[in-house]
Write a structure and sequence with these properties.
Elements lengths: L11 H5 L6 H5 L3 E5 L3 E7 L12 H20 L3 E12 L7 E11 L3 E10 L4 E13 L10
Antiparallel strand pairs: 1-2, 2-4, 3-6, 4-5, 5-6
Length: 150
Amino acid sequence: MTDASDSTPLDVMEVFGYRGIGTLAERMGIEFLELTAERAVARMPVEGNTQPLGLVHGGAYVVLAESLGSTAANLHAGPGKVAMGIEINASHSGSATQGWVIGTCTAIHLGRSLATHQIEVDDENGRRLSTVRITNIIKDRRPDQVFEKS
């Protein structure tokens, strides 16, 4: 398990050379710690991502997972291609109230037109909070599809 408190975040712009993680992931405080098409790890602070009871919002787990899976799929797709989520499902099995949650993304299938990843979201003690699967379609990037600048 990655120790979220001691890890240095990656600069995703440096990894790709042309895109960041997107404004939603930035607003939620998501930080990438590892990034390959086969495996990616990111952390997200609990603070600022909770529902009214003080627990991490289930949708926040899904945003963390989709950020991981889509970024890994885009890395697999390579320049000139774009990966876009077409299916996601999540099963929440726990909740966090403090610290960081850590998402670990593992490739299930990396093909020419589809990439599927499973993301396990845990708290800092390694307790499972959510299990998510995402499938991305890989297509040629149109000239008008530009990535946000960080």
